[in-house]
Amino acid sequence: LAAVSVGNQQIFNAYLLWGDAHYNLEFFGQTMPTTWLVSLDAIISTATVGGALAFWTIWARFRKEPDEIVKMAIGGLIAAGAPLLLAAASAQEAATGAKASLIWGLGFHIVNDIGFAMVFPVGLALYSRAAPRQFSGLFIGVYYLHLFLANLSTGKLAGMLETMDGQSFWTMHAGIIITGAVLLAVFAIFFRKVLA
Predict the structure, then answer these.
(1) Which of 5, 29, 110, 154 is the most buried (most CB within 10 A)?
(2) What's the CA angle centered on 137, arms 134 and 142, to 5 degrees?
(3) Would you give the DSSP letter of residue 160?
(4) How far apart are CA 154 and CA 73, in angstroms?
(5) Burial class of residue 169 in the structure, from the number of CB atoms within 10 Å of its CB (0-12 exposed, 13-18 middle, 19+ buried)
């Protein structure tokens, strides 16, 4: 879970530094603070959580819903597309010399938040459901440890921004997220009976 969450947690770390240096932040003649991107993310993430819930509700009317851990793997694969958009923005900036449009940033936030909406709340529901009743509070606390680990990782990874170009930096993040999603899919195969 920590690997799948790395891209989302980087929003509060290296993403703001990268955005400050590489986005064209001119907005109606004013320079927009990069911290506004965090506010934008909050708005989008609220909408995508509701959207993910509605999607799976509609899906369940026509088909069998996948297991929670499979949903999380799907969410991870979607979330991996977000840093790939930033890698593409970095490649375009390197090719043209012009700073990246905020459209790339909007795309990043939308794709990331759709993916994360299928990871975080679904994982919380899985831990709540699968935990023994007398230890449910403890297991919820254990679940939140993945954010602690993800934040530790993003701090270490953010230091690489100084030595890596943007394209490599964000592609590395996508690779970490994809690895986490694949591991979730493997766990789904091996632990399906236990989780059921």
Answers:
(1) 5
(2) 120
(3) G
(4) 20
(5) buried
| Distance, CA of 8 to CA of 16 (rounded, Å) | 12
Q: Name the nearest CA neighbour of 68 among 56, 83, 80.
A: 56
Q: pLDDT (tens digit, 0 to 9) for every residue of the chain, 196 residues total?
A: 889 999 999 999 999 999 999 999 988 888 889 888 999 999 999 999 999 989 999 999 999 989 889 999 999 999 999 999 999 999 999 999 999 999 999 999 999 999 999 999 888 888 888 777 888 788 888 888 888 999 999 999 999 999 999 999 999 999 999 999 999 999 888 877 766 5
Q: How far apart are CA 20 and CA 119, in angstroms?
A: 28
CA distance 177 to 175: 5
The residue among 144, 139, 119, 138 whose CA lies nearest residue 127 is 139
DSSP category for residue 165: -
Which pair of tokens denotes residue 15? 């993403």
The pTM for the full model equals 0.90
Give dist(CA 190, CA 136) in Å, integer.
22
- By residue count, the chain amounts to 196
14 contacts 157 by C-beta, under 8 angstroms = yes
